[in-house]
Amino acid sequence: MTNRLLPIRMVTGAETVLAGPRQIQLKRVARMLLDNIVWLILALCLLIFSLSISGFFSYENYVNILYQSVFIAILGIAEAFVLISGNMDLSVESVAACTAIISVWLCASSPYASGLLLNTWAGLGIVLLIGAGIGAFNAFFVLRLKVDSFLVTLSTYIVVKGLAVLITGGMGMNGLPAAFRLVDTAKVLNIPLMVFLMILLYLFFSFLLRRTRFGRHVYIIGGNKTAAYNFGISVNRVLLGVFVLSGVISAITGWFMAARTNGATASMATGFLFEVLAAVVIGGVSLSGGMGSLVGVFAGALILSTIHSALNITAASPFLTEVMRGLLILVAVVLDALRRMFR
Amino acid sequence: MTPRERVSRGRAEAEKARRKVILRLEGISKSFGSVVAVNNVSFEIYENEKIALVGDNGAGKSTLIKIISGNFPPDRGEVYLDGRRVSFKSPVDARKSGIETVYQDLSVCNNLDSIANLFIGRELTHRILGLPILRGKEMEDTTNEVLQKVGISMPSVRDRMEYLSGGQRQAVALGRFVAWGKRLVLLDEPTAALGVRETKQVLTLVESTAREKTSILLISHNLLQVFEVVDRIVVLRHGEVVGVREKNTTTPDEIVSMITGAIFIQDRKRDAPAKKRR
To answer: How many Å apart are CA B99 and CA B88, to the nearest integer?
Structure first.
């Protein structure tokens, strides 16, 4: 890891002198373009679809694009934190599904639910704790037993979802209390509350990542773990924080999902993982750690939901949707490779 | 050794006695499993002195520097800093005592800018609602100041390190010891990844820093460089000190002989330097 970071060429001072200010300026512009290319793609998508698809360009549809991006966008925050720290979390989808199912099981009046009919806030408190617990569980294996995070979270991905379905018997449940559903039912300017909450979450976590010591340390660890250790950063504590954060954010997504469907089914959130990874990587977060910003991830999530919306309106075949999904991931990975090549 | 050399060495010793010892190692030993990396090493570093630690691969240089910088404790032996016995639990402990290490691989984060790299692990913050918020402006100003002192110009301290040249990167790594290396700076092959020009700049910086009261311990394979910079040379072989020489009273040939263990074999002395120099 560290060796890769060493300069490969012998860079002499003369080279720096030869590259004139104009060239340096050009390079800087090109870099900025590649770093922010996600916004260009988003703008192009919106422009092309708005002009070519009738019914695409409307307030309702634009609100819908935002509304449909909420789950992927929020899970994107979780995944971005973990990826920037140089790890991987495949369990975000399962944690969201599991916490959605359990929160409904705790709070809903459905005959298949627990019958506890817990107060909304008590139910949410419990699932947030469950999210944090799963994050800590992942962190334990990654940090104490030094297992690769990909493998650890791959197994939690499968286990967690299985557990939730096991507890609830795999039955669909509904009948949530009104307070629980408020994030979905309350609207301002016809925009559901959860959209505003998503933006708030983005503002808060962007601040955490960019302006606090914790966020700085996440970048440092993702960039050069040895250096982080050598300079006295408590690597394990920061990474534990990152995994727990990922679990909690996924649990918040679970709450929003349950509120929107007014219940839970065993197949909830299926396929979210790859969309989240696509959104995050298109948004400029590097799979090899240390790079990326949340604002880019947000744009990445918007691109995905813009394309979904276009496919929906044109009533495209669901198989085409699958193909598009796959291609988007390819685009994301190629972008990641391009960025690395350009450095 | 000619009689004249012996006299001048004696004079140097007498001069040393008047100077203040910053760091003293006494009987340091360290083994990894059955491999003895460092065996009963003792020497001292004086205030304001530049000293080199040389030896072949596996001679124990890195182990020794890691003991001094607090990466791990010695099995036996003691480290004294300013006459006080110290036992560092971590690199942070050593750094708090004023021992700064510049690592072989530069230890920079290429994904971050010069500011973040200079302040790595010691970010300036103020607490708002218990959350440590970075003091960005202040850190940027300090970075500009420090890099100016280092004498390397950069387009912007906000550029990510990966866009900088090797020399500029090294300047940031060295900037850390200019800013925080109070007592002793450990330089582990600081120019291994650098071109000729950058190497020169680094050495100049090392010189000027040493003039400002900081002692320097340099590890290098490049004997020319060692002779250019330091006052005294400690030679390690198989984990033991085989000799300490004043720069003025020795030659690169003698040092090479000590490194390779060929010190008493006259006819091998001629061929050895070619092997050691890069």
So the answer is: 11
Q: Residue A230 and residue B107: Cβ atoms within 8 Å?
A: yes
Contact A222 B166 (CB under 8 A): no
CA B259 to chain CA centroid, nearest Å: 19
Does residue B273 or residue A60 have the better pLDDT? Answer: A60
Per-residue tokens: B26: 């006494």
Cα distance between residue A19 and residue B114, in whole Å: 20
Paired sense of beta strands B240-246 and B232-237, if any? antiparallel
Per DSSP, helices labelled H in chain B are 3-18, 61-68, 91-96, 114-118, 136-150, 166-180, 196-211, 223-229, 252-260, 266-269, 272-276
* Residue burial A291-326, b: 16+ Cβ < 10 Å; e: rest: bbbbbbbbbbbbbbbbbbbbbeeeeeeeeeeeebbe
Spatial CB neighbours of A191, under 8 Å, sequence gap ≥ 6: A63, A66, A67
Whether residues B105 and A2 touch (CB distance < 8 A) is answered with: yes
Residue A22: inside a domain:
no
The two tokens of residue B197 are: 């020009």
Of A7, A208, A290, the CB nearest to B111: A290
Q: How many distinct structural domains can be found in chain A?
A: 1
| Domains of chain B with CATH codes | 20-276 (3.40.50.300)
Give which of A31, A216, A219 to mutate to test B binding, by max B Cβ within 10 Å.
A216
Model confidence pTM above 0.90: no
**B210 pLDDT tier (thresholds 50, 70, 90):** low
Shortest distance between the Cα of A220 and any Cα of chain B, in A, equals 6
Do the Cβ atoms of B109 and A220 come within 8 Å? yes
**Domain encompassing residue A174:** 58-342
Query: Sheet containing B240-246: which strands, arranged edge to edge?
Result: B99-102, B184-188, B215-219, B50-55, B232-237, B240-246
Residues A280-303 pLDDT 10s: 988 889 888 888 899 999 999 999
Q: In this structure, are residues A212 and A218 in contact, taking their beta carbons and an 8 Å threshold?
A: no
Write the pLDDT tens digit of every residue in A248-259: 999 999 999 999
Tell me the pLDDT band of A63, cut-offs 50, 70 and 90.
very high
What's the CA gap between B140 and B264, in Å, rounded?
55
A192 lies in some domain = yes
CATH of the domain at A261: 1.10.3470
Nearest to A213 among B71, B123, B201 (CB): B123
In a domain, A258, yes or no: yes
- Is the pLDDT at B35 greater than 50? The verdict is yes
A166 and chain B in contact, CB less than 8 A: no
Has residue B110 got a pLDDT over 60? yes
Q: Do A223 and B112 touch (CB under 8 A)?
A: yes
> Residue A7 falls within a domain, yes or no?
no
Say how many Å lie between the first and final Cα of chain B, rounded: 27
Residues of chain B contacting A, Cβ within 8 Å:
71, 90-92, 95, 101, 103, 105-112, 116, 120-123, 125, 131-134, 136, 155, 162-163, 165-169, 193-198, 201
Residues B87-110 have a mean pLDDT of 81
Q: Do A6 and B91 touch (CB under 8 A)?
A: no
Question: B120–A10: do the CB atoms touch at under 8 Å?
Answer: no
